[in-house]
Amino acid sequence: MELTNTSKYPQVIIVGGGFGGLQVAKALANKPVDVLMLDKHNYHTFQPLLYQVATGSLEAESIAFSLRKNFDNQKNFRFRIAEVTGVDPEAQVVHTTIGDRHYDYLVIATGSTTNFFGNKDIEHNAMPMKSIPEALNLRYLILQNLEEAVLQNTKEDREPYLNFVLVGAGPTGVELAGALAELRNHVLCKDYPELDAREMRVYLVDFLPKVLGPFSDEASNAAKRFLEKMGVEVMLNMKVQNYDGTTISFEGGKTIRTKNVIWSAGVMGVVPEGISKELIVKGNRIMVDNICRVKGYSNIFAIGDVAAMITPETPKGHPGVAQTAIQMGDSVGKNIIHIIRGEPAEPFKYNDKGSLATIGRNKAVADLGKIKFQGFFAWLVWMFVHLISLLGFRNKVVVFINWVGSYLSNNGGTRLIIRRYVKEAVPQENEPIPHTD
Amino acid sequence: MELTNTSKYPQVIIVGGGFGGLQVAKALANKPVDVLMLDKHNYHTFQPLLYQVATGSLEAESIAFSLRKNFDNQKNFRFRIAEVTGVDPEAQVVHTTIGDRHYDYLVIATGSTTNFFGNKDIEHNAMPMKSIPEALNLRYLILQNLEEAVLQNTKEDREPYLNFVLVGAGPTGVELAGALAELRNHVLCKDYPELDAREMRVYLVDFLPKVLGPFSDEASNAAKRFLEKMGVEVMLNMKVQNYDGTTISFEGGKTIRTKNVIWSAGVMGVVPEGISKELIVKGNRIMVDNICRVKGYSNIFAIGDVAAMITPETPKGHPGVAQTAIQMGDSVGKNIIHIIRGEPAEPFKYNDKGSLATIGRNKAVADLGKIKFQGFFAWLVWMFVHLISLLGFRNKVVVFINWVGSYLSNNGGTRLIIRRYVKEAVPQENEPIPHTD
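Output (structure tokens, whole complex):
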């Protein structure tokens, strides 16, 4: 085990290098604390653009940024690749895959993972898309299934490979549906001249009566209109019953034959062992007080997707979006310093900056407070906001070039299968491709 | 199985989408043949820049290009992801992982793989770097070992993680040695402030008395001088005895403790089953006549690394470089048309365009016929030649931006561990990182 911290400063451990964790570390720069960030990956993931990695419009590395590099200039920051397996609040220790680490202040910024609501069949057969490896797996599956479709002789045999069913019509589902429709409309005829684009179908399913549930009705309606214009089949008020890997079934009896089910119907917080079960509320989130402190503990905080700050205005907690994590992270970083200095902590106040979702080229929806607009201008705003939010100058430039290239050519992106996706077992480089005939 | 080709044109099957295979297909554009390219990957790999993927300077996707996309506009071209498991020259059929395919003309452009000269220990423990998945594995191993080094308490414990031994001082070994030295000299102190850069050591080993064996003495000497100036320890006339995963041993008794051995000491052709063993010469290459036709067959060709055209001027065949493959590919494409038209085939003539190798920033060597130069101007030429040779405008722009960024910042690139490398078994996304303490 590494030598323990011998510094005279309090040790702040941040678990997770997502939007929230990053912000805590930033707020603690040049402050009298030692910061240790733990993450199972050595990079930050810009989740809002994961769907473009999945469809091959962007490389994974353009939406990720090295956590070490990001804090190159922050003297009190250290980073370790580690997974936290548990918390011992009595001993002020986290158990991790690289051993135990002592903390004076702990920030749980572990985010969320896909919620399959207990359905093991769906969990096994549908594709989640919450991390870069998952988005890459999805990309490889989509491309492999297009290749499989080419090898089939009849429309019926091709059908399951060319039907794409997206469950969950939140921003992720909507954006992915739009991107798949563009792939069908513009790329398929060029890259797969053997296939008839009309045979590829994109279904977007939700159990709610609208797409983009939390958005305004104007935004929802416009998004649905945009999607349908692009050829996406939007199925609302539909509840998924099961998915066995070949057929997805819905309550009421409808079924679709498909090898491509992408599940973005819900998330749940990732809570380390050791946090009292009584503090866990709906969505597997940890109840926190008005300074994001885990109830009952003086020095453990939780922020972002894994935290539920329940107030009269937010009876289910704050929305599980990047802005919540960023603002909570900033607040917690500052409050840790207040607490160390014996100053009163400042209650967290959420500043709703609004919501954006894009559907495709020239098409997006924006709810910015009372200002709501849809279409080309919303799309420009969406691009601008995402570009400036990306970590790293290089990433901004590379993503911008990719977008310009895609816009001009209608055939951008790199649709490469770097590592073949095989369910359950990740293949060796030289593993033969299974026979299909 | 797919419906067989019902076209009236002869079927040309090209096995492999490397430099040679691409060129054959290009030469057959708009000609009265049907072209089917088979490759186990759906992309072309620009092998000369693999080492920059391994050190995290470039993303994998910048040096790869979709084979389907590359031939979007070529009407007589089809592509399938498939591995060829054998050739049946009597039946004019290739056996593949997607079934049998009939050919009228077959071009074997399968390239080469790493040659461990039969040493199973080395094959199991050392890292090859001939494909994108291999280069990524190497990147992940290098980064993981730096992370491991951080977790160790003593210089002795850190030593095997921080010693890098490159076996084979050809262009690949030299370029990788330079890139690792730059990582040590410029990046380590920023990204890993816990480590002392002097503890990281880069060894470049060859059994020959010079680096860059086939280059001029001027180039070799300059490359060695550049490398040593950057802190690479060049060990010549050294023959590796064994490597058990922790210690590499050399004839004469010297040993180095290291977890990082990269093997670029030799290559061997990838020959499909069914080609007569009598035609295989040293380096596992297939003997071909003066039009790259496999000896004894009228309609099977072999080009590039897998072909040996033995002439008085080339007693061991042509050099295993991109130029050989490109020129042979072009020649074979044209000769297939000549043969179909009943015209005489044109013997292959190799045009040696010279050799380039870079060692690091502002440092390269160039042997262009009688013109030999080293240093900054050679480095500009190296960059220019590699940029224009890359497939795809987007790739050229992205690589250029990355290079400019790295040059200005001395800390470019994306050193991300997207999928943890584990020997033998590729891990699941959530596999815990093994304990080290």
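The radius of gyration of chain A is 23 Å.
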